[in-house]
Amino acid sequence: MNAKPNLLSGMQPSASSLHLGNYLGALVNWVNMQENFNAYYVIVDLHAITVPQDPAELRTNTRRTAAQYIAAGIDPAKSALFVQSHVPAHAELAWILNCITGFGEASRMTQFKDKSQKAGSDSASVGLFTYPILQAADILLYQPKAVPVGEDQRQHLELTRDLAERFNSRFGKTFTIPEAHIMKETAKIYDLQNPTAKMSKSAADPKGLVNIMDDDTTISKKIKSAVTDTEGSIKLDWENKPGVSNLLSIHSSLSGESIVSLEERFEGAGYGVLKGEVADVVISAIGPIRDRANELMSDQAELDRLLARGAEKAKVVANQTLAAVYDRVGFIKPE
Ligand code: AMP
Ligand code: TRP
């Protein structure tokens, strides 16, 4: 019997490549956590369409996201990696949860406020408004103990716990109350061009961002043109030397060499030397992941088979939870 607790997390298929921040801040944790948990990792295409998407791009990005996760070490034999729209129970449970969520409660979600302000209040969709409730459904279907997410998802996790408790007290114990596992930012990665801002896909300058899918030459160019300072010493000082500190931190996170040891080794060296070595370290960490992801992308039938298998695994648990929910709320079973 498998006695490991369940874990669930989700990622949007909204970019053609993950960046180094996603990799070091989230993906590496997910890969490690699959050892001690029964992990469910869902690519949330239903969430993606809460803002306008080009259909062909959404299709490609969904597969590219899956390919990068597998290439980085999410093992489809250990974990269930699947696409949200392949498991209809997500949309079905979301409806039930919509009906126990207060309008005011949903209105307090800060991510909706931010995103709808950006979209303009007239063009924000109702789907964007109910986004966190669909997220609660993603989570509660799998009875997970742990949900590894970034700090920005804390409020959505609180809503999920509230909805689970409300349902349980109204209809009888049905859902496990999940714990947010806020991933610590030991490896917060900053923009190479603007090293006081987080590396983010919405960066103003694409040179600030190292993508998992970048080729070696591009990675090397981006790192060599990283903004530093004029002082000339290589040491960790986030306040006065954010660019150099970011490069040291990227090196250390990927190579495992301590910052102190790097500072010693680079004492008296120029920034060019540091950048050259950081580029090598990044290329040797990211290169094989990119190559494997490209290989997976070139055999779409195999990739789709892996995702289909993930969805089958997910459905076993999801459908069981949904059946219990339908029964508790008073729906009759179809003959
Ligand atoms: P996003 O695509 O921005 O929603 O990010 C997905 C996940 O990647 C987040 O939950 C963060 O944990 C992680 N992440 C994103 N950007 C960074 C960054 N610059 N440094 C570290 N982690 C990041
Ligand atoms: N909202 C999450 C994000 O933007 C993505 C997500 C959707 C998710 N469903 C989830 C995360 C369930 C964890 C669990 O990052």
Explain what this protein looks like in three dimensions.
The chain is mainly alpha-helical. It is 54% helix and 7% strand. The protein contains 13 helices and 5 strands. The protein has helices spanning 20-33, 45-48, 55-71, 89-98, 103-107, 110-119, 126-140, 154-171, 216-224, 242-255, 259-265, 271-298, 300-329; strands spanning 6-11, 38-43, 80-83, 146-149, 179-182. A 3-stranded parallel sheet has the order 1-2-3. Helix 8 links the parallel strand 4 (146-149) and strand 5. Helix 4 (89-98) crosses helix 7, helix 4 packs parallel to helix 13 (300-329) and helix 7 (126-140) packs across helix 8. It is elongated and about 75 Å long. The model has no long low-confidence stretch (mean pLDDT 95). Bound molecules: adenosine monophosphate and tryptophan. The site of adenosine monophosphate has 15 residues, from helix 1.
